[in-house]
Design goal:
CATH topology of the largest domain in chain A: Rossmann fold
Mean pLDDT of chain A: 91
CATH class of the largest domain in chain A: Alpha Beta
CATH superfamily of the largest domain in chain A: Aspartate/ornithine carbamoyltransferase
Structural class of chain A: alpha/beta
Number of strands of chain A: 9
Strand content of chain A: 5-15%
Distance between the termini of chain A: 15 Å
Oligomer: homotrimer
Strand order of the largest sheet of chain A: 7-6-5-8-9
Number of domains of chain A: 2
Order of helices and strands of chain A: HEHEHEHEHEHEHEEHHEH
């Protein structure tokens, strides 16, 4: 973990400061997480899953306040964090319209964050600029959780992806994982690939020639001695896949609209495609989908993408409890 | 009730699943509600009224989360549902800006609803398209409450209208109810008229010739043997009225602005108009009003339209508790 | 206090109505507050500070609902009120987009407020028009708190400014306070100056010649026998200052953009400027800042502007508890 630990004593009752290893930490990047950290996080997230299944909610963070600071809209992520805080008994201040608000009137991000932390106990930040979460964390005294900083990182997405694999397959070591679609611009697959270097897995990278996995990520895989193949045809590797991670080909990532139109339909998952897949494989997707997976696949037990969002709730509950010293 | 019952066991503590007749149901249309269902609902709503009067709030839905999903703005309805959930001890995730959000980036309504139900226990949906609530309910595993689907239905408005009559007059059978104003485009009066066919009442339909009650609704009244008159002058029937339901002539319902200007002022309620009314009559309005009822009427004890909103709170508290198995 | 007291009995449990002097009152203007009222308010706010430091939150307003009704965006103020309500155990309904909502479709402010008070226990109102808070209070049965009505008042800002001085300096009487920057259009310095007439203080008014303190405010100072100087150079008075209150020169207050450009940089606080200041002086600012105080000043212990926001939380907690009869 980063050494960027904050002293939150003022908001904790005396004697309540446990030996919580993430207490007061920022969550900025997947690079912070060692294999041991991941194991700890997933253990807490699994407990959160049990809590929600059995009780719905608990009062672990009763009286705590989350500031959900979103400089660009992301209903899925903001709702997931809000629900995570509320299922832990805490409260949420939603700041969703920063562009229109007086906070935006030329105010610097550090000033906005230092303002909000006078009201809240933890700040979740979504911002379009790379490095904004680290900048906020540098000035903040309360924990900052990066909920996406442009082309930078979205660490809680990567953590929930990995937790999904862990919960669905019962393990991560030994699996073969296929990353499919836009591997060039897909922030989620870059972070997931980096996290997977902590484990003993094999990867298949399947992308159109225009959208390959960046060399920088491939270098990280090689450095970790993680075996991987590169191809442009899913059929080459589908039968040898335990986890099929499908990504959206996002129009806004393309400079040339014509290229987008060419590749968008190239990797659509249908019931027919899945006939060539293993019976215990799972299909994942970071959502939203816009045609990459046919709705007819939704009833297939291998379709794990809605469960994946539910795992996201548990991971975010775990992280909130951890940085606030309650897990 | 619709047979569209959902299994919500996972979010309820063991032994907590009562014999609640609406448990796991969607609330999509007033057509679902038999006279017996209405009686049950109003009994619960009346209890909620007592709870709020005596305690302000209770913890009946503590730990439960409502997703307030509004594809078009409706501050009144979304605030009412939010307050209802909060007065029951539950939490709310507000999604008010769907048009601007990433959820809207081409994502289908079923995907959005299935996403939100991984975080929430119940979804309230406002959407501009007819049938959207039914579509959402078909894919959702958690209860969906229709908060208005375009020219379709807005069942909780109709239920609160009827509950207002019930609470204010002490009964529904035997009353004479006058529906006034835009009866052609007014969704609320259509739904209310349909609900009233469950009771032994008489109706007066008073509208400008351009804005008559649709034949389809009149047919439903005839089929139920509900006696009604049709006229264009309130003075014809005001003295024979127990409940005067005034509707707004909404500009956006008119294709021709000139017609709107002609009829907008035709049915304005003033203290002078009320001189011809019964002493125990009540005046209702779904709000917002834009001149249909003079503010001078507000202090008249017959002005029930602000109390009507308060009854809306109790009805929505009742429905939330009912579909979540707590009433 | 204003005699505009409301009867809130219906929402309080029997026997819970304390002898709370502000119970049921609106908070519309600093002019309501006698020196005794201020002392009472700051006593409660100080207790709230202790509560937050030691416990984070309490359940004093559990089950109560605040409607945060903002006709113009103000993230700072709305977040501060939301956090205040949540740290007291209450809930918040945020209505931030009134311009786009159906409530705004020609509905009058009294109708909107009377609607919201059927759901909520207290209404915080931000509105661009002078006098709107008083208009709302006239029609409302629940307490209204003015969170800024255009060029009118923003009383909770003035109260938090004064509370900051009180908490930081340990007293108000005997201090010398310098108001710096745009004294003509700065609503906050007008209200603060009026509040200071209740105390035995001295003022320095430092502004560019184009932006002097209005004569009306100066008259109020003279009437209260409050000694003050007027100048355009901070260096004239900095060494004789206990509290330096810096204001933003807001572009939107200027009719002529050229004048704005001339004066904006004239009064920037830097570490070099502070070399001429007392060691125990504090620097305040209502925020947002856009260059008036260099970020290098933030680490100076005299920089009180982030603490000032925190004091705002305590003052708003105090006011909410007071008007709801719990303090």
């Amino acid at each position: 973990m980063s050494p960027n630990t904050k002293n939150l004593n003022t908001h904790l009752p005396l004697g309540d400061r446990k030996e919580a290893p993430f207490y007061g930490h920022d969550i900025l990047s997947v690079r912070q997480f060692s294999r041991e950290d991941l194991s700890y996080t997933f253990g807490v997230a699994h407990e959160m899953r049990e809590v929600v299944r059995r009780l719905g909610s608990i009062d672990l963070l009763k009286g705590k306040i989350l500031a959900n600071l979103f400089y660009e809209p992301s209903t899925r992520t903001s709702s997931s964090f809000a629900a995570a805080m509320e299922r832990l008994g805490g409260s949420v201040i939603a700041i969703n319209e920063v562009r229109y608000s007086s906070v935006a009137k030329g105010e610097s991000l550090p000033d906005t964050v230092r303002t909000l932390e006078t009201y809240a106990d933890v700040v979740v930040l979504r911002h379009p600029e790379v490095g904004s979460a680290a900048l906020a964390a540098k000035h903040a005294r309360k924990p900052i959780i990066n909920a996406g900083d442009g082309a930078g990182e979205h660490p809680t997405q990567a953590l929930l992806d990995l937790f999904t694999i862990y919960e669905e397959m019962g393990r991560i070591d030994g699996l073969t994982i296929t990353l499919l679609g836009d591997l060039k611009y897909g922030r989620t697959v870059h972070s997931l690939a980096r996290l997977l270097t902590r484990y003993d897995v094999r990867l298949h990278l399947v992308a159109p020639p225009e959208l390959p996995m960046p060399e920088e990520v491939c270098d990280a895989l090689r450095e970790a001695n993680l075996p991987f193949t590169v191809s442009s045809q899913l059929t080459d590797v589908l039968g040898d896949t335990d986890v099929l991670y499908v990504t959206r080909v996002q129009k806004e990532r393309f400079e040339d609209a014509a290229v987008y139109e060419q590749v968008r339909g190239a990797y659509v998952i249908t019931p027919a495609v899945l006939e060539g897949a293993r019976e215990k494989m799972i299909v994942m997707h970071p959502f939203p989908r816009v045609g990459e997976i046919s709705m007819e696949v939704d009833d297939d037990p291998r379709a794990a993408y809605f469960r994946q969002m539910e795992y996201g709730l548990y991971v975010r509950m775990a992280l909130l409890a951890m940085v606030l010293g309650r897990a």
